[in-house]
Amino acid sequence: QVQLVESGGGSVQAGGFLKLSCVASGDIFSRCGMGWYRQAPGKGRELVSSINTDGATTYTSYADSVKGRFTISQDNAKNTLYLQMNSLKTEDTAVYYCAADRPKLFLSSRGCDVWGQGIQVTVSS
User: Fold this and answer.
1) What is the pLDDT of residues 47-84, one digit of tens each?
2) What stretches of 1-125 adopt beta strand conformation (E)?
3) Does residue 107 contact residue 100 with C-beta atoms inside 8 Å?
């Protein structure tokens, strides 16, 4: 079954904003930390942002290229991961992927290797 489904992509002018959503099925959020990746044409897939917890503290990380512009968050009650993208630049154009690619920090080897199908974000000048 489909386990991660992204939405919220599209086209926007530089300086604009978009908010990506990723709905997770089953117990993914209880077992796995989450990340947003992106891949531009001819480029490798890069980690944009991640979110995880050790059970008490939530940790987030951001690629240098998006710090101060993007914000990752999750709503466990809605089983949804978000990426708020502000002040978008043309170089943000890529296919964005939601991933459950790591266990919670207090767990290990929990089978976290689940990827969404990707969603296009296009930023024009």
Assistant:
1) 999 999 998 999 999 999 999 999 999 999 999 999 99
2) 4-7, 10-13, 18-24, 32-39, 46-53, 58-62, 70-75, 80-85, 94-103, 114-115, 119-124
3) no
